[in-house]
Structure formats: structure tokens, C-alpha cells
Amino acid sequence: MHMLQLSAAALLPSLHELWESVFSVIRTMKPVDFIDIAVLSYIIYYFFTLIRETRAGQLAKGIFFLVVAYVIAHIAGMKAIPFMLETLAQSSLLAILIVFQPEVRRAVEKLGHSRFGLNNLGLLGTNEAVETQWREAIDAVCSACMEMSATKTGALIVFERQTRLGEQISNGTILNATPSKELFSQIFYKNTPLHDGAVILRDGMVLAAACYLPTPERNQIINKKFGARHRAAIGMSENSDAIIVVVSEETGSISVAENGDLREDFTWKRLQDHLLNRLLEKQPKKHSLRSLLLRKDHGTSAAGSQPSASDTKGEEVRHEDGMDS
């Protein structure tokens, strides 16, 4: 008991000094420092959302507890534990980077197709024809999924978005076909040459079939009730921004995988709404640089060809004079 009192008495001055140091730093901070902290906090939060429920996520929890132990030991005036943890951190930095390599790669890829990407700066423009193709493709997929769900025909359909899936397309069979309910039903009909694998859609067209998808990084902790198709869908969604629709061969249920998460029990309406919202997100209309220049030239020529206000007024006066006569 006496030792605990001595430890508490030694710890209180250290905590007081720590709080004084924190408040002195806050008093000297500028607005840009708060912005810097906010951006860094968001980056750390974004990183942890990527590694949650993975092997790296468990490692991150262990590192967090080691950091807490280091701070407590340093405040308490201990020598051996801080020295050991500092030595361990220096020698294991490279190993940690290697372990986190898949998550770092995913973060960089997602940054490339995030709202800060080039296509969201209005430099690439939009294509109304592609939007129409996507709407028709979504209707075909929804109808096909309902039919395959009723017959318990397994299906795996990938909607490519901004992350190109060239690696998966190259190991499949190129079709470049217009999507339809009959086409999907024929592809996924059991024992047909193309039924084993995934169909990949790009720009509203069926680009390839019989494509093999990557296995999920957290394969060991996925519910055992999910089969190979659901696991492949999760793996593909972990490695890209694609949306993957799965029809279970055992239960006929329809699921959607995105960003490493799998949602189940989709109806026709719910599936259609989800795909429309995710593939055709409502954003301010963007125009390419070429279209803006064409519009400017068109406006200039149109202005040159339009009659002036005085000419129009003169024509109206002449017309009125003719009516009077």
C-alpha cells in the first residue's frame, strides 16, 4: 500500500507537467496547425477503416497498446520498458511496412479513384451514351438475377468502375456483347463453358466472361456459410472499387459486395436502386475542356448570326406600317 502511494505521488507531478506542456503548445498554435492536425487525423482514420477486420488490423491494435504502455512507462519515469520498446520499434519498422503492404496499396488505389481524382475535376467529361448503356445493363442484370434466383442458378457479375480490371479480364473470354437477361442466363447455365467464373461489365457492355477473381485478404475470418462465389466477390471488392453481384447456387439469395463488405437479401427494386445510385451517382454535370471550347465557339458564331436589337425593332415597325396600310 505504501509503495502504491509513493508511485501515485511520483506520477501526479509528471501528469501535471504533461498537461502544462499540452496547453502551452495549444496556446502557440496557429489556424494552419489545426488544419494540419485535422488532415492528419483523417488520414489515420481512413487508414484504420481500410485495415479493420484484417490481420493487419489485429496488428494495429497490438501496436496501439504498445504505444500506450510506452507513454505510461515514460511518464512514470521507468527506464527499461521505454528502452526496450524504442529498440523494438526501430528494428521492426520494415517488418510492419511489409505486413501493411496490401492495405497501403489499397489506400493508394482508392485515392486514385476517389472524389479527388482527375475525372472529378471536370477534365475528362461525361458520356450520355454510356449512361444509357449502364441503365439498360442494370435492368438486364436485375431481371436475370431474379430469374436465376428463382432457379437457384449461381452467378457472379462484376460492374467495373474507375479501377480497371485488365488482369481479371485477360484470364477470361472476351465477349464485348450487349447485356440481356437471356445472355446472362445462358452464360451461367450449369455445365456451359463460361459458367465457371465471373462476368465483367465495362461501360454498360459485357466485356468478358469466365474471369477468375482474387481471393479475399481476410479469407480466414469470413463466415463459413459463404461459398467460393461470395468469397471471390469480397476479394474483388477489396482490390478495386468494383461492385459485384452474387446469386447463391444453394439458397438463390442475391448479394452485393463493395469495399470488402457483403450485403445480402436484395430484391429486384432494392438491387436496381443500389446499382443506379452507385454506378450513376448524382453529381453536378461536368464538361470536358473540348466541349467547353466548342460551346464557346458555337456561342460566338451564334451571336454573330443573330440580328441586333435595332434591326429587330426596325422589322417590327415595318411590319406594323404594312398592317396599317
Low-confidence stretches: 115-126, 282-296, 298-325
Written as H for each helix and E for each strand, in order along the chain, the element string is HHHHHHEHEHEEHEEEHHH
User: Gyration radius, to the nearest Å?
Assistant: 30 Å
CATH architecture of the largest domain: 3-Layer(aba) Sandwich
Kindly state the number of beta strands.
7
CATH topology of the largest domain: YojJ-like (1
Strand content: 5-15%
Mean pLDDT: 76
Question: Helicity level, as a percent range?
Answer: 55-70%
**CATH homologous superfamily classification of the largest domain:** DNA integrity scanning protein, DisA, N-terminal domain
Which term fits the overall shape?
Answer: elongated
Largest sheet data: 7 strands, mixed
SSE-based structural type? alpha+beta
The CA-CA distance between the termini, in Å, is 119 Å
Query: What is the count of structural domains?
Result: 2
